[in-house]
Design goal:
Length: 394
């Protein structure tokens, strides 16, 4: 099935001309049991939407990113694993992966690691190791004390998050367990979410000093984890709080709170806004999604894309997944993941490039894309052999 799509807006003078990477995300099933049963697809395209390079992967792809050497790092979705595996069958949860793979430009597998508990996000770290998010069962006595969430949605197990760091040989060298560092009276599940998970972390970012920055959809917040102590040293956006005198749970929906955020990270050095936190706020309580940039020193919102979309007669809203990344020219690339829409927006909130996923996958949510990335024309050596990023018409 196809519809009006592809690149629908392109201001070549104001857009950041580069190559955009994205992967088709099928949610019809959480993955495949055997390689080739349900292949993954990742595309690199120019500004006009023409695919200039692509990869086929042996399993459905959660998302993939390019490394500076032209290698593709991909999180793959499998159903492999026995009874009780988190994320599939009786413990089905969004974001299931199970396999991490690094491939070269031609698609040859250079690294593969399988962990049935792996979900949502991963990184190749500065030290050459890999880190990823994984699920573990929460101790029953602690699960009973977790506050918030929808009544009547408890299961036999409540899951929580682990950050696992492994060597290129697959050996575990470090783990961070959320249940050892979160306070049940501060980290409260939002009222829209089922009590199947406490945290539901969906991104993992390595800061320059080795700290991790993560967002938690179920806790509606972004937090920073000290690399040495594991303590949470900064938190922003939590919408739910406990009135300790009355025992009542309160919900605040303000510009300084989040609703199911994704893709939290620190804007890297050399980019406009460097050092600020940028994330995609899905807007689960306001029903308007936004990219939001926060000064981590003051906690103040310094920019948001709230008005994006109104000029085209629509309100941007993606109730799950999605991403927002700062570009070298100061624009921000957003992936409205639920709808398969990518758009580049200026600091003044003008949309200067827009792309709609042109083909549906056989899925309950057929247009979904977890994240999208824009890479500069000289990002990796392999780009030199590609057609111009602007496309043949420019």
């Amino acid at each position: 099935m196809k519809y009006w799509a592809g690149t629908t807006i392109y201001d070549a003078q104001r857009a950041f001309n580069g190559y955009t990477l994205w992967s088709a995300l099928s949610t019809m099933q959480t993955g495949a049991e055997e390689p080739g049963q349900w292949e993954g697809k990742t595309f690199l395209m120019d500004m006009t939407g023409r695919v200039v390079h692509s990869w086929k992967l042996p399993y459905p792809t959660m998302y993939a990113c390019l490394l500076p050497d032209g290698h593709l790092l991909a999180g793959l979705r499998t159903t492999r694993g026995g009874e009780g595996r988190p994320g599939v069958r009786e413990f089905a949860m969004g974001g299931t992966m199970g396999m991490l793979m690094e491939l070269d430009w031609e698609g040859h597998v250079l690294f593969r690691h399988e962990d049935p508990a792996m979900h949502h996000d991963f990184k190749k770290l500065a030290n050459g190791n890999y880190a990823y998010l994984a699920w573990e069962a929460l101790a029953p006595e602690k699960a009973a004390r977790v506050l918030g969430g929808r009544r009547g949605t408890d299961r036999s197990i409540m899951w929580c998050d682990v950050i696992r760091e492994i060597t290129p040989g697959g050996s575990i060298v470090r783990e961070w367990h959320a249940q050892d560092h979160l306070d049940v009276e501060e980290h409260i599940i939002g009222p829209l979410y089922a009590r199947v998970e406490w945290t539901h972390m969906n991104d993992l970012w390595e800061c320059e000093n080795g700290d991790f920055l993560c967002s938690s959809r179920f806790l509606d917040c972004v937090f920073r984890i000290d690399r040495n102590t594991g303590d949470i040293i900064w938190r922003w956006g939590a919408a739910s709080s406990l009135d300790r005198e009355s025992g009542r749970l309160d919900l605040a929906v303000t510009p300084s709170t989040l609703g199911g955020p994704h893709d939290a990270h620190i804007i890297p050095a050399g980019l406009p806004g460097a050092g600020h936190m940028l994330c995609y706020d899905n807007g689960m309580y306001s029903y308007i999604s936004r990219a939001v940039e926060v000064d981590v020193q003051t906690g103040e919102v310094v920019w948001q894309s709230t008005d994006v979309g109104f000029q085209h007669g629509r309100v941007p809203f993606s109730c799950f997944i999605s991403s927002a990344r700062r570009l070298p020219n100061g624009n921000t690339l957003c992936c409205e993941g639920c709808n398969g829409r990518f758009y580049e927006v200026t600091p003044d909130r003008d949309v200067v490039w827009e792309y709609w996923k042109p083909e549906a996958d056989p899925s309950a949510t057929p247009w979904t894309v977890f994240r999208a990335f824009r890479y500069a024309k000289d990002y990796c050596p392999q780009f030199a052999a590609l057609p111009p990023a602007e496309g043949s018409a420019h």
